[in-house]
Structure formats: structure tokens, C-alpha cells
Amino acid sequence: MAKAGRAPRKGATQKSLIILAVLFLLIGGAVMDPMAGIACFALAGVASLIAVFSGSGWPRLVAVALLIAAAALAVSNVSPARQHHQNYRSSVGATSVE
């Protein structure tokens, strides 16, 4: 058990950020709403970016790979998100009362 006042190991923080980024990527891929997927991919990118700047060695390489994957998945979801938003705007405009 860790003593009070002892700082966590540096490698543990990067590993936690990498695990968090992987979880955000999985959630972003599983969610049905494209805008929510983009938000999850952006959060994964932020967690990966923090791990890139604070890590060294293999955690940095994994974080770079996760950052590239998050960016690619976010870009691939832009078109469905735009279409989803246009459908939403047209449905709201058709049902609005003037």
C-alpha cells in the first residue's frame, strides 16, 4: 500500500492516460450519434496528447499511435455528423410553430 505523501510513479500516469484514451476510442466507436463519437475521439486525442508530452519510451509511441487514430476517426465522422445535423435542423424547422 502506498504511503501518504508519496507521489505516484511517472510511468503510471502515462499508462493511465493511454488506458483512458483507449476507452474513449472504444466508446466513440460504439456510440450511435456521430457528434458524440467526435466528442469522444477529441477527448481521446487530448488524453493522448498529454501522454505524448509527458511520456518517454514506449508509452510515448503508443500515445502517438492513439493520437493519430483519434484524429483519423474524428475526421472520418465529420461527414456523417454534418448529415445528422442537417437532418436535425430540417426536422426542427418543419415542426416549429410560428
Can you walk through the features of this model?
It is a single chain. With 98 residues, the chain is mainly alpha-helical. It has one domain. It is 81% helix and 0% strand. It has helices spanning 10-30, 34-54, 58-76, 78-95.
How is the biggest beta sheet arranged? none
Count of DSSP strands: 0
Q: Which strand-content bin applies to the residues?
A: under 5%
Structural class: mainly alpha
Unreliably modeled segments: none
How far apart the termini lie comes to: 65 Å
What is the number of helical segments per DSSP (H or I, 4+ residues)?
Answer: 4
Rg over alpha carbons = 18 Å
Structural descriptors:
98 residues, mainly alpha, 4 helices, 81% helix, elongated
Protein topology:
Elements: H1 10-30, H2 34-54, H3 58-76, H4 78-95
Question: Nutshell version of this structure?
Answer:
The protein has 98 residues and is mainly alpha-helical. The protein has helices at 10-30, 34-54, 58-76, 78-95.
